[in-house]
Amino acid sequence: MAPSVNGGFKSVRRRRDAGYFVSSESGKLNDSYNAILDTFRERIVLLEILQHKHTPLDPALAPRSEVVTRDPTWQVFLNQISWLCDYDKGGDSTSSLAVEGTPEGPKYWLAANFDKNREGVKHLRKVLGMLSQLSTLPLDKHRPVCDEILKDSIDFCERKFSNYEKSLKTAIHFAVKSIDQEEDSQEKKLLEDVQALLELDTRLKRSVSAFKYATTSTLRKVHRKHRDNAPKDAGSAWYEVCHYTGRLGSWVRAVRVLVYFVRKHPQVLGDFQVDFVAAPQICKPLLQKCNPKLRDVLRRMLPENKVRAVRLSRRLESFRAFDFEAAFSRKWTEKKYTARSHAELMLLDHFWRNNLAFFQNVEFVGSSKRSCYCCNLFFDLHNRNITTRLTHGNAWSKWCLPPGLGRADKRRLAQGQVTILERMNEKIALDILHLIEEGVLRRVRFKDSTTGMWTAPTLSSSMK
Prior knowledge:
There is one protein chain. The protein has a five-stranded mixed β-sheet with strand order 6-5-4-7-8, sandwiched between helices. Strands 1-2-3 form a three-stranded antiparallel β-sheet. It is flat, with a radius of gyration of 24 Å. It has helices at 31-51, 74-85, 119-132, 142-156, 158-177, 185-197, 203-214, 217-229, 232-248, 250-264, 294-301, 306-317, 324-332, 343-353, 373-381, 411-437, 457-460, and strands at 11-13, 22-25, 28-29, 95-102, 105-112, 273-277, 364-367, 387-388. A hairpin with a 2-residue loop joins strand 4 and strand 5 (105-112). It is α/β, with parallel strands linked by helices. It contains 17 helices and eight strands.
C-alpha cells in the first residue's frame, strides 16, 4: 500500500514540531511517509550546500529574463501586482496572486510567505480600487490616479525601498574603485548621476529617476564592458549598480504595466473581490534520522552502485577549501531550523483542493519573485498543470508542503502528493550527482527577484 499524506486514515494527528502533517493509525506514525520526508530533507540540504558555495556573481550565468512586450500578458499583470503587495525585504512578505472566475466577477486570492496582519491584502484591495476608477475617468485624468498608486505603493514598501537604497550606495562605492578615474570618465559621470538620484528629496522622485536610468542603454553598455573585460569582482559591482537601480525603479514599471493592462482589459476588475489564503504555522520538522553522514546520504541515492557512491564521497572530501561534511552536519542539526510553505504553493493547494476555476481559464499563479527550486519542481510534477513564474533555481532546505496538501478528502489525491515527493527526491538526487560529478561546485547564487530593467524600455513609449 502506498503511503498516504493524512488521507484515508480514521485518525489524523498533527504534531506541532513536524512541519508537515503526520498520518497516524491508532496514534502510530506512518513510518513510510516520514521516511520519504527524511529522504527529501537530507537531499535538499545537500543540494542547498552545493548550490550556495559562494563565489563572485557572474551575471552572464543568470537565468533568462521574463520578457515584457508592448502588450503585457495576464501573467505579467499578476506578477507585477504581486510585487506591489510584497512590502518587506527578504522573503517573509513574498506574495503570490491567483484569480478565481466566479459568476459575480474575478476573485483575487493573495497569499504571502508570512503576513500575520494581512497588510498585503489591504494594499491589494486599495490598488485594485484605484485602478477600477480609470474606466470612469477621461484619459487626461488618469495621471493623478497613477501617481497616487505609485506613491502609496512605494510608501507601503518603505522598508524594502530603503534597503535597496542602502544596497545601491554600497554597490556604487565598490564600482568607483573598479574604474580608472582619469580614463573612464563616462563611467565616473554615470556613477555620479546614479548617486545624485539617491539624494532627491522624495522616494517617489528617486523611483522615477531610477526607472529612467535603468531604461537607458548607457548603463547597460557600461555593465557589459565591465562584465566582459574586468575581474569578476568588478563585474559584480557593476551588476549590483544596474540591479539595484532597476529595483528602485521597479515600482514605476509595475504601475505602468497595471495601468496599461487595465486600460485594454477593464473586465479584469469588474465587480472584483479580494480574499486571503492564510499561511500555515511555521513548524519544525520531525526527523527520524539523527545527523546522517554525508557518505550514507550518497549511498542511499545509489543503492545499487556503492562504488560510485564512495567515489562521489571522496570527491567532496577532496575539496580542502570547504568541508562539506561539517556544513551538512551544521545545517541538519540547526537548532532554529523551521520549515515554511511558500506563497505560490499555498495558492496551488487552495485552488486544487477546492477545485476552483481560474479566471478566463488561465491557470497561472503570479508571484512577486521567481519561484525557488522546490516550488518550480512541484508545479512541474503536479497533475493540475497550473503554472507559475520562472525559477531562479535556488534550493532552500527550509521548504515544506502546505498542510492543506495532507487534508485531501480522497485517498488517491493524498497518495498523489506522496508520488510527487518521491519524484522530487529522484530529481534532486540527479541534480546532486550532476553537480558533484561534473565539478560544477562553483555555481553562483542568483537574485530571487527581478527588475526587468532591460525590458522596461518596451513599455515606456506605450504607457505614457
